[in-house]
Design a protein that fits this description.
It is built from ten helices and eight strands. It has 394 residues and is an alpha+beta fold. Strands 1, 2, 3, 4, 5, 6, 7 and 8 form an eight-stranded antiparallel beta sheet that branches. The protein is flat and about 90 Å long. The two termini are 22 Å apart.
Length: 394
């Protein structure tokens, strides 16, 4: 039995390592090209991004490549009648299946860790690289497209001469109670101050306007924009999805306390207005704003509760995929491993991932419990158990 187990593990490792390398390189290239197109990153910064993108690529690649390796090994064994020979000797198919289950369990734990690192370390690190290169990114896009845009502001120029922006127009979007603004100038220059964590734009002979209400002229003006506002991923550090797993219990407790304090404040404010007879203020814009803030705090709590369930369920998709793929390959008795792979993977694409997405969206909104993200895993386990019974019986 040790020889058979060693043979299975060696074959599984070889196929898995090759497929994982190919798929991970492909995913990495896709991520690099995407960041190159989205941000116009220089070549050096692309190289710095790779370590931060690797956990993201691996967590996407491992479940699919493990399924491919499993169907490859067991399809070959079944197609060569090795499984039939083992049964004729009175050896249960479980004897050759348990090694891949152990490997899948260990890789599931690794994938949970990668899920955690990809969002809590990888995304923040990639964002930091982009922020540190924001000066070169902005100049590069302004030279080629004469426009640089982020969620919070936009820069348009007539042309770029060296490090000088000629006839720049900067539009700052309104945010909450802060009005939008527009600045036009004869020339400007920008640089990133990493110590202060701001992007500095220095204007020469400029005119400023605040939403059409106030207009002024300045010979020189210095505008500082937080680096977090200079890219589309600038709010990642504030998102519950970018916390590490060990932080969630503490953050959930803090969020619950904040919600209780907000409820007490709202109750006290409502009582005060009722006693003062200010009934119209209970339905005014200020009260609506407070109610919206309280609702957003509840949504944040739902997201904090969801994340641990999501990461563990996504990580243990490795075990669930293999639980289906191994008996499927044995049951079909066909050396065509690609057919076995797609017979497993297509239902996973059609059922598992939509159920996972539905569970995530519902749990974020608080309409369903966060444990619902495990629904797809449970269905795969039931399917695999049914296939395993057929393999054991026939």
């Amino acid at each position: 039995m040790r020889t058979l187990t060693r043979h299975i593990l060696i074959e599984l490792t070889l196929v898995f390592a090759f497929a994982l390398t190919v798929l991970t390189v492909g995913v990495m290239i896709w991520f690099v090209v995407k960041d190159l197109l989205d941000h116009g990153l220089p070549l050096l910064e692309i190289g710095l991004l790779i370590p931060y993108l690797l956990p993201e690529a691996l967590r996407l690649s491992i479940p699919a490549t493990l399924l491919l390796a499993t169907t490859t090994v067991y399809s070959r064994m079944s197609g060569c009648n090795e499984i039939v020979a083992l049964k004729a000797l009175g050896i249960s198919p479980v004897t050759i299946l348990w090694p891949v289950w152990v490997v899948a369990f260990l890789l599931s734990l690794l994938t949970v860790w990668l899920n955690d690192k990809a969002v809590s370390w990888g995304r923040l690190g990639a964002e930091r690289v982009i922020q540190e290169a924001i000066e070169e990114i902005a100049y590069g896009m302004l030279r080629t497209e004469r426009r640089y845009e982020s969620p919070h502001f936009t820069i348009n120029v007539k042309r770029v001469e060296g490090r000088t922006l000629v006839r720049p127009t900067v539009t700052i979007n309104a945010r909450g109670s802060t009005p939008g603004a527009m600045i036009e100038a004869e020339a400007a220059a920008l640089h990133a101050d990493l110590r202060e964590n701001v992007l500095v734009i220095e204007f020469h002979n400029c005119n400023g306007e605040i939403e059409g209400r106030l207009r002024a002229s300045f010979p020189d003006y210095r505008l500082e924009i937080p680096l977090n506002d200079t890219s589309w991923g600038g709010q990642a550090a504030l998102s519950p999805s970018c916390l590490a797993l060990w932080q969630f219990s503490e953050e959930i407790a803090k969020q619950k306390q904040a919600i209780e304090r907000r409820k007490e404040e709202l109750a006290a404010a409502a009582a005060q207005q009722l006693l003062a007879g200010e009934f119209d203020r209970l339905t005014g814009a200020e009260w609506d704003r407070r109610a919206a803030e309280a609702a957003n705090m509840e949504k944040t709590l739902c997201r904090l509760r969801l994340e641990p369930f999501r990461r563990w369920s996504a990580g243990f998709s490795c075990l669930c995929f293999v639980w289906v793929g191994a008996p499927m390959a044995v049951w079909r008795r066909n050396r065509d491993f690609l057919t076995s792979f797609f017979l497993c993977f297509l239902p996973i694409l059609i059922v598992y991932y939509p159920l996972l997405a539905y569970g995530i969206d519902g749990a974020k909104n608080g309409t369903i419990p966060p444990v619902a993200v495990w629904t797809g895993n449970v269905l795969l386990l039931l399917w695999g158990t049914w296939l395993l019974r057929k393999v054991m019986r026939y």
